[in-house]
Amino acid sequence: MKKYTVPRLLLVVLIMLTGLSLFSCNSDSPEIPPVKLEDIKGNYKARLITIQGNFRTEKIIGFTVKKDTIAFEDFPVSEIVKSVIKDPAKAEAAIKAMGKVKYDLQYNATVNAGNNVLELTFTPKIMELQIPVDGTNKKAMVLLNAKQKGFYVGMDQSLRFAFSADKITVDGLEISPYDAINYNLPFCIKN
Fold first, then answer.
1. What is the span of the domain harbouring residue 104?
2. Is 112 helix (H, G, I), strand (E, B) or coil?
3. DSSP code at position 74
4. pLDDT by residue (tens digit) across 101-146?
5. Residue 166 falls within a domain, yes or no?
6. How many CA atoms lie less than 13 Å away from 190 in the CB half-sphere?
7. CA of 78: how far to CAs of 41, 97, 126, 129, in Å?
8. How does residue 151 score in pLDDT terms, banded at 50, 70 and 90?
9. Is residue 19 part of a domain?
10. Contact criterion met (CB below 8 Å) for 138 and 169
11. Does 182 map to a domain?
């Protein structure tokens, strides 16, 4: 009977050591710093997906995020201009003549500590454009809208948001029929 007690004692000690070694692994996960309001600031690159009716385009754009503003130095206006000017050749000429269009999208950020994200609530202002066609300028007023919140994710430091051009008025007359233009930026990364 004595020859069974030594192996049992050794087995109990091995089980206890294994349990203690597994217990110490619980605290080995990396520390994720909490997101702060200042984290969102910077220059970004993003894949912009633009959808209007059955047409979809994608391109890479850049923008800058400041304290309460997303500043586009070259806002994508080709779909807006093509909605105003139906002739494709004249529309392309107008887009070239307009050059880079600047637009600032206002937002308010709040910290969601539970999900480690910043929630962005947008307050877009009306975009005013002077579209050159046939030697004159058409004054276009574009009503932008953001129906959902945007998010800055602290874990991967990415920004995600979407907005739309719901209505265009040219020289005081609303364009009709008109398909809204949706601008989706599903994954924006800092430079």
1. 37-190
2. strand
3. S
4. 999 999 999 999 889 999 999 999 999 999 999 999 999 999 999 9
5. yes
6. 12
7. 28, 12, 17, 12
8. very high
9. no
10. no
11. yes
